[in-house]
Structure formats: structure tokens, C-alpha cells
């Protein structure tokens, strides 16, 4: 009898208070803010040019690696492995570029403050694409396909500094990536009034997420992230102590980077984004901290964490449920993290909710080189 009552209770959908429903509605329908540092963000021809570049391996030193090598459309723009391999192996996981245009910081450690500030670092990283901005600039003017597209967007290309051409290449890539939006998830439909859009298990997971789970401390708002940097206790892939300084080293890189919100190549170098970046200082707590990723489409982008240390959502939920293997750089630990202590049903419900955040991929014409 008691078992029957327990099973019956599990079949009852959770009841959300009016306050909870208002909160849930606020987490749907993300707003889109223009990047004022990129004057070409909404330029259709720039986006087409960026799409061509994204899938083209000729910008790598061996002619075999493109942006799509590590950001495959069929894998929700990830590569499905723990740490990526470009020209050679790197040390971090490739995050999805879906919805990436609406982040505040880029890369796992936030070493760039604009979406267009990211590509040149990738092009020139010896383990990623191993290219050179001078070669990129030459390709834009000498390759017949690119030269035509380039002139349509930027006009005369003579006597243009290499740094300006490189920045414009990056801005075109950003214009394309801005189109890579994956929303319209079961959660969004549920939040907007479709009571059948989410399973009862997912609804229970949602109630835990916004309530006693405390997940909103780091994963709030329509993008399910605070955009900040945290140490969450996941050790290196091969075990041992933490070795990746994360945000701590990234701040120094950000302050000397060539393509930033406050650089000469920015289209809003005196804007709010640039001012904030200028005044960021290193803190001891930043050592080993990494950016809180958006949870949208999280079920489609395993493995997880900055070096792909956790293979599945089950592993992620287990980590936060127990925190048994929490690794710290010294004695610092995120004070907001406490074990969730979930039972088997609670874990299943939370995973069901995370799966409900899977949105629809962008239109097919954006998932391959432009025709």
C-alpha cells in the first residue's frame, strides 16, 4: 500500500506558485542585445562571408582544420570529445557556439570580451589552426571568391592595415555566429503556457532547479547563466591537483589582447563593455575559475566542464549531488556550493528538466557552407 501511495504521488504534476510561474516566464524569450563593438553584426553579406570562412580549412596552416572541425553543426556545434584537436591536441573542451553571441565573455576563461575578439586567437593558436593574420588578409584579397564577397561588404581593400582586415574577418565570423540561435525548447513552450510541453518528471526537475536546489545562483535568466567565473571542484582529466589557472591568467591576456571592446579595431571602444573590461583586476579567487556555461541545449553537448571531465549529464548531476571528489587549488571553495543530496528519482527529474532545454537547430542553410 505504501509503495502504491509513493508511486501515485510521483505521478502528480508539481504545483507552481504564482511567484514561481512569474519567475519561469521570465526565463523564456531571451532578449537580444546588439554588440555595439561590431558594426557588421547585422550585415547579411558579412554574415554570408563569415559562414564561408567558418567552414573553410584553408585558413589553417595544414589546410585541414576549419572552425567547423571543433564546432560541428550536427553535434550542436561542438565536437563531442573531451578536449579538442586542431593542428594538434589542445587542453580544453570546445563549447558550443549556439547562442554564443549573447554571452558577456568568450572562451572558457573569458580572455576576450567580444565575439569577434575570439576568432583571430583561434586562427593563430599553434595547436588550433596555426595560421597567421597576414595570410588571412592575403586570402581575402587574392582568392576570387573571397575578394568578391569582401568588396561587397567593405569596398576598396587597398592599403588597409593587416590588423583592420583581420578584425573585419573576425567581425564577419561573429555576424554569422550571431545567427546561430537555438531556442524554442519544450521549457520555453511550457513557460509560455503549454502545460503539456514538458513531462511531469521535467516539471519536478524545474521546481527543484528554481527552488531548493539553488541552481539559480549561477544559472539564472533566459540564458541560464550568471556569465561569471567559478571553481566547481572538477579536477583534471588525468587526476591530481588543479593546473589550469583559468580566469586568473585570462585577465592578463584580456588586458593586452589586440582585438577587444576597447581596442582601435572596436566600433565602440569607449562603450560600457570596454570600460568594464578596462577595470577588471585579478583576484586570488579567480585561480582555476571558469565561465558558467549556458544550460540551453546542454543535453546535446557532452562531455562537460572546461576539459570535458564529466562524460554525461548523469555524471554532472552526481558531482553536484555529492561533491565527494571536490578539488581545490588551495583552501578556497565556492561557498555557495553544497551537496544537492538527490535520490535516484530526483536525479532523473533534474536531468529530464535539463533535457527540456534543448532548442531547435538553426535553419539548414546555416549549417553548411553557403551556396
Q: Within the CATH hierarchy, at the fold level, what is the topology of the largest domain?
A: Cytochrome Bc1 Complex, Chain D, domain 2
Structural class: mainly alpha
Strand arrangement, largest sheet?
Answer: 1-2
* Unreliable stretches: 1-9
* Main sheet record: 2 strands, antiparallel
Strand portion: under 5%
Query: How many strands?
Result: 2
Distance between the termini: 64 Å
Draw up the topology in text.
Blueprint: H1 2-10, H2 18-26, H3 44-54, H4 67-70, H5 119-124, H6 133-142, H7 144-154, H8 162-178, H9 186-191, H10 200-210, E1 229-230, H11 247-256, H12 272-278, E2 290-291, H13 313-322, H14 344-355
Structure explained in plain terms:
This protein has 371 residues and is an all-alpha fold. It folds into two domains: 2-30 and 183-246 and 287-355, Cytochrome c-like domain (Cytochrome Bc1 Complex, Chain D, domain 2), CATH 1.10.760; 44-180, Cytochrome c-like domain (Cytochrome Bc1 Complex, Chain D, domain 2). Helix content is 36%, strand content 1%. The chain is built from 14 helices and two strands; from the N terminus they run ααααααααααβααβαα. It has a two-stranded antiparallel ribbon with strand order 1-2. Helix 6 packs across helix 8, helix 10 crosses helix 14 (344-355) and helix 13 packs across helix 14. The N and C termini lie far apart (64 Å). 41% of the residues are buried. Mean pLDDT is 93; it is low at 1-9.
